[in-house]
Amino acid sequence: MAKITSNILVDVSGGKDVYNALAKAVSAAGLGKSVQVAAVDGFGVKAEGAVVKVLPSGGYYTGVAPEDADRIVQAAASGEGGSPVPAYTTNVRVALKNVGYIDPASIDDYIATRGYEALGGCLTNNTPQDVIAAVKASGLRGRGGAGFPTGLKWEFAGKSAGDKKYVICNADEGDPGAFMDRSVLEGDPHAVLEAMAICGYAIGADEGVIYCRAEYPLAVARLENAINQAEALGLLGDNILGTGFSFKISINLGAGAFVCGEETALINSIEGQRGEPRLKPPFPAAAGLWMKPSNVNNVETYACVRHIFLNGPEWFAGIGTEKSKGTKVFALAGKINNVGLIEVPMGTTLREIIYDIGGGIRGGKQFKAIQTGGPSGGCIPASLLDLPIDYESLASVGSMMGSGGLIVMDEDDCMVNIARYYLDFTVEESCGKCTPCRIGNMRLLEMLEEITSGKGKPEYINELRELGEVIKDASLCGLGQTAPNPVLSTMHYFMDEYEAHIRDHKCPAGACSALLKYVIDPEKCTGCTLCARNCPVDCIAGERRKTHVIDQERCIKCGTCMAKCRFGAISRV
Amino acid sequence: MPVADTDMAAKLAELDAYIDSLPTKEGKLITVLHKAQDIIGYLPFDAQHHIARRLGVPSSKVYGVVTFYSFFNIKPKGKYKIACCMGTACFVRGAQAIVDEFKKRLSVETGEATKDMLFSLDTIRCVGACGLAPVISVNGKIYGRVAPDDVNKIIEEYMAKDGGSVG
């Protein structure tokens, strides 16, 4: 029987043209028995064009077009082809180990990557206390934002007395700009199920609940499929692997509320209530779902668990920094050349991420800031690019790890406007329970709106700062406690932009349209009338071959005139 | 309108069958609301009262939950649901201009449907397709790297499908 000697993996997330061309080229060359073409959902960051990886050489082709198929197939057949691409090869894959490499609909594929081996090992060789001790020794901390030590959380839930306990998976990924959990759920659903079962064994729970965003229908479908497959093989359900341990998992759909990422709000939502956070204590480990001891971790945290048992806690603790162990998945987006998911060891610097992996700023523009931690985080300026990313260092500069969104901003982004954008989000998503969060954030937003429209008063600077601190101190849950971060951090690093808006009524980045003015240079204007004919509100006056003038009162600042002018006579000031 | 009434009655009967199939009603309010919105398309007050009676909870609680979560709609949506992503990645790549263009072309505000009920316009928070920013979706179909100039083309694509004309 012929043996498959090489594999060609094709990223089909942007379309199937290249995949079809490669499959055709393989059969045309009569290599169907030795070269296999497989479709995968991406290799991490995305650059322009299709990406192809060749195994066993491990090389990549980027920007592949269907015409390249024959050349790639020939090279692959001789066991060669492709070249290393830093954007992919600097990744250290733990949580994303299987994502993009196995068929997520196949439990056989998962088992072939030592799937359910960690669960089997824990059930047969370890006591629940051993399991908790191993997770503690690994140094794994929560990947959902706050970074609480996972092993400690399991220990608390394990020690709580109760006839019934729950393992909950927080799959309510709500940070705008973060999509690593979706990627894990869609690309490697069994990894989450296996970790939940391990946790169930460790804390003494027989039931797991996955709280998943309703906006992720594919993730839900893949999870349902994975649960059915695992139950059919006796890897979930009653008497798992004949050990007497039983564990079943169900899926609960979210309904669109950012605050439900907070664990007690999430628990209320599973119970069918409004997702308002509860007062802590009691913590979920003592009284969570239906007031029973519960352990809540997020998707990425669970996705790390089996590797701790397969490779040993020391191995995991050997990656990363002193206090932040292992790897972290980041969603790289914004004004950067390569966008997508990356997984790097904790302690990697922002500079390495932006320039080595991200390929630098789009269009050769100037880097201004990188936003981490979503609406709870802050903006980090260029002077801190050599900051090694871990929980503590991000907190020390006024931001936070959050779930791992990294949004890169360039010279065209106004930092006051960015702060306003995040406040707009928080005001909409505040559950309304605590007054400082419900009303305080609204007041912050109103001040920022006035500043970005040129009506800000000098005293706003102090008021923003004071009110921000009050909201942080006096709110019950993480949403309110971190909501002012985008304002406070941009005020800290980009005060000049706030002052320019308030004092000079100018937006240095040219983003706040209310503060912009389009003017025609009489020296350069030829009176061609092109701008006047294209103005949507007819506010440009002037006769043919004579200088044109923009009526500032009526101008809506759409910028059409500037784009249309062939003589560079119109500028934005 | 008797036609609409029988239509709604049939839909509520379908919902009742679902509620009866649940092993327990405790904590199932959100699950039932998801199903109701699947069947009816939105959650009118009549349906909310009906669900309250069937689950044995006050209508005020149902209303409280429906209005808490952005996924639930009290107003009907258009046949083609346009959702513009306003996640951060889309925002910094010009999502606001896309929303404004849709508003202008369809003469609606966000959260509203056109008079002929063909289109409704909403903004949503991150569909997790940040690599394609700015992103919009029409009935779940994703359009990436959208420019304001593409907006009319997208609207016309669905108009053509429906055999309708602009306006």
Structure description:
- The complex is a heterodimer of chains A (573) and B (167).
- Chain A has 573 residues and is of the alpha/beta class.
- Chain A has five domains: 79 residues, Glutaredoxin (3-Layer(aba) Sandwich); 211 residues, Rossmann fold, CATH 3.40.50.11540; 84 residues, Ubiquitin-like (UB roll) (Roll); 89 residues, de novo design (two linked rop proteins); 56 residues, Alpha-Beta Plaits (2-Layer Sandwich).
- Helix content of chain A is 39%, strand content 16%.
- Chain A is built from 23 helices and 18 strands.
- In chain A, helix 8 crosses helix 9.
- Chain A is globular, with a radius of gyration of 27 Å.
- Chain B is elongated.
- Chain B contains seven helices and four strands.
- Chain B is an alpha+beta fold.
- The two termini of chain B are 26 Å apart.
- Chain B folds into two domains: 67 residues, Arc Repressor Mutant, subunit A; 83 residues, 3-Layer(aba) Sandwich (Glutaredoxin), CATH 3.40.30.
- Chains A and B meet through strand 10, strand 14 and helix 16 of A and helix 2, helix 4 and helix 5 of B.
